[in-house]
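so the lab meeting is tmrw and i was supposed to have these ready like two days ago... anyway. pasting both below. for each one the top line is the aa sequence and the line under it is the C-alpha cells. i havent really looked at them closely yet so no promises
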Amino acid sequence: MKINVLGCSGGIGSGLRTTALRVDASTLLDCGTGVGDLPLEELFQIKHVFTHSHLDHVAGLPLLIDTIYEELIDEPLTVYCQAETYQVLMDHIFNWKIWPNFFSLPSEEKPVVRFVPMTPGQKIIIDGKTFTMIEVEHTVPAVSYLVQDAKSSFAFSGDTASAPKLWQALNQQSKVDLLIVECAFADERSEIANQAKHFSPTSLAKELESLSHQLQVCVSHLQPGEEEKIMQELRAAMPQRNIRSICSGDVLFL
C-alpha cells in the first residue's frame, strides 16, 4: 500500500493542511484541506471517502465534489460514514444554503455522490483492501480504521481521546505494520485536550500501554506551533516506542 499524507495538522498555516490521507490512488481517509494540493488528474481518481463530521476532516469534500463533478456522472463518489455523520453533512453543509446537495444531483435516481452507512465492526472491501471501522471516543460520533491488504496493514485512529476497542482489535492481529494516531495538544494543555476529547502525550502513552504490538507509530493532528514540544513529550513518555511525526507531503509505503 501507498499512503500519501495530504494533510495531518491540527490547524492551518504556511505548509500546514488538515487531515486527508490517500490510500493508493482512489481512497481518502478524511477529506480535510490537504486534498486541495492534489493535481486535477489525481483528484479525478478519487472515488471513496471515509470520514467523520468535524470541519477539519470534511472541509475539502464540498469543493472536491464540485471540482470533479463531471467525472462523477458515470462513476459516483462514495462517502462511507456513520448515519449520524451523514445527517450532519446533510443538515449543515449539503443543504442548498452552504453548498448544493450533490447527493441528489444531477438527479435523485443517479446522484454524483452516494452515501454508504457503516457501523463499528463493519468491513468494506475496496480494490483488494479491507477497511474495518472501529469505535473510538470523541465529541461527535467518530471512528478509527484498520486497513489491510494481502501484504500489509495499518491503523488510523482518527480523532479520539480513548480507543480501547481499537487496541483490542489490533492486538487480535498477528501483525500490524503502522499506527497513525493523533496527539493534538501538549501536556500543559491537557485540560482543553480532555474537553475536546483529543490525546495529549501523557494520555496517549497511557492508552498505548494496551497495545501489544511494537510497531511504527506516526503522530498526526498536532496543534500548530506545538509540534516540537508534543513530540519531545511523546518520546519522553514512550522511550520504548518507535515514534515520529508525519507532515503534509510525506509518502508511506507498506
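ok protien two:
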Amino acid sequence: MDLILWRHADALDNGDPAEDLDRALTAKGERQAKRMAVWLNRQLPSSTRVLVSPARRTQQTAQALDRKFKTLPALAPDGSVEGLLHAARWPDAGEPVLVVGHQPVLGLAAAYLLSGQALVWPVRKGGVWWLRLREREEQRQVVLHAVMSPELL
C-alpha cells in the first residue's frame, strides 16, 4: 500500500484560532499547490483515493489536482494519527491513498510508520511524503518512497 501525505500549501494567517478552518491559500500557496499537483498527477495511479481535511486551505490544495476527493472531518487540524490511519484504511487499502492535511499530524504519522515512535517530524508547506508498505522476507516494512517540496519542482 502507498500512503502519500500532502501538507496544505502556504495559507493566510489571520491570527484568529476560531477562524482556522476558513484560512485560504496565499498566492504563493496557490503556486505551490499547482506545481505539486502537476508532479503528483504524473506519479499517482488513476486508482488513487484522495482524502482531504475540511479546512479551506486543504480543499484549495486538493483542488489543484483536478481529481475527485472525499472530505473527512477526521483529517481536520485537530485530528489524530489514529484517525488519519483509519481513514486511509492503513495498512489494508487495496489502492494508493493521498491524504491532504495538516501539521503536526502528518509528521507524526510519518514518524510513527517509519520509526514506530510518536515524533514530531516537520513536513514543509505544500510538501509530500510518500510512504510504501512492502513485504520482505515475510515481514511488513514501511519505506520512504519519496519526499518532495514545491521549491524543488
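from a quick look at the 2nd one: The helical segments are 27-43, 56-63, 81-88, 105-115. The longest strand covers residues 139-148. will dig more after coffe
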